[in-house]
Amino acid sequence: MKCGSTTLFRDLDTSPAVSFPAHKEPHNLLHEAVLTESGQAEYADLYRNAHPDQLLGDASTGYTKLPTHSGVPKRAKAILSDDLKLIYILRSPVARIESHYRHLQSRPDAKPAPLEDVLADFPEVIDYTCYGQQLQAWRSVFSEENFLILSLEHHEQHRVSSTNLTCDHLGIPHCGHLVESDAKWNSSTSKPVARGPLAPIITSPFYRRRIRPLMGRGLRDYARRLLLPKAAPASAVWTATAWDKCEERLKADATLLAELTDGKFGADSSWLKPPFPPSR
């Protein structure tokens, strides 16, 4: 969540070799019901329009939201193959926390609150930034070869080659030349939010299941930009107390993340660079 999954999803969605549901995040694997016959049928129905030769994609960010949602990797293995291709995109911990803060402040019922208070009221802001903890849950079920770990920063700077690298991981033809290299999807600083009279409609299960699939992504993008207000600007102002609260958890997790990624992520000193100049 807030790590660029929508951008990566939209980039892969340009490939004719991949089929995603109309709703980017179906989240079926969050629930034990997916293990039942009817639950598997409901999950499969999301891909009813896919061609037999296409890979099926699920970009649900809830699958890496421990401790809010647990058991997802085991459910994935139970109903999907052992050679499931997994992609985990992460970003600078400070940037993710700031983006999550703006996301929470953009909600229709949100009251203006400083970052320090939001961290206290919403512990998941730090929980979801513990990438090592999230990755370890999946690595305990699937082999290392199943995974491709990306960073949003690198993906944005090398959009074409990073997308092609992902295609290589999936075993499909390159589609990097098809992506909108300058587009940033679902940015917390400018995304449309579900407010006003249309909110109950576009957030309803009926709309997500029945109406959205009838609309192309281009039409949905246009309607969202035209009809929904943009998120109100909110700046995350760091205090020493807020940083201490985050750093304590994230330092230990960075060590775990570095172990799980052979030092590619979490080991560099810049990974947890304080978000303000050191005091003199």
Describe it.
This protein has 280 residues and is mainly alpha-helical. The chain has two domains: 5-190 and 237-268, Rossmann fold (3-Layer(aba) Sandwich), CATH 3.40.50; 192-229, no CATH class. It has helices at 5-12, 37-45, 72-79, 93-105, 115-121, 124-127, 131-139, 152-157, 159-170, 199-202, 205-211, 217-227, 240-260, and strands at residues 18-19, 55-56, 86-90, 147-151. Strand 1, helix 2 (37-45) and strand 2 (55-56) form a beta-alpha-beta unit. Helix 7 (131-139) packs parallel to helix 13. The longest helix has 21 residues, at 240-260. It is globular, with a radius of gyration of 19 Å. The two termini are 35 Å apart. 26% of the residues are buried. The model has no long low-confidence stretch (mean pLDDT 88).
Quick structural overview:
This protein is 42% helix and 5% strand. It has helices at 5-12, 37-45, 72-79, 93-105, 115-121, 124-127, 131-139, 152-157, 159-170, 199-202, 205-211, 217-227, 240-260; strands spanning 18-19, 55-56, 86-90, 147-151.
Strand neighbour order, sheet with most strands: 1-2
How many β-strands, per DSSP? 4
N-to-C series of helices and strands: HEHEHEHHHHEHHHHHH
Q: How big a fraction of the residues is strand?
A: 5-15%
Task: Sketch the major β-sheet.
Answer: 2 strands, parallel
Specify the overall morphology: globular
**Quick one: CATH class of the largest domain?**
Alpha Beta
> What average pLDDT do the residues reach?
88
Number of helices: 13
Ends distance: 35 Å
User: Helix amount, in percent?
Assistant: 40-55%
Structural class: mainly alpha
Are there runs of 5+ residues with pLDDT below 50, and where?
A: none
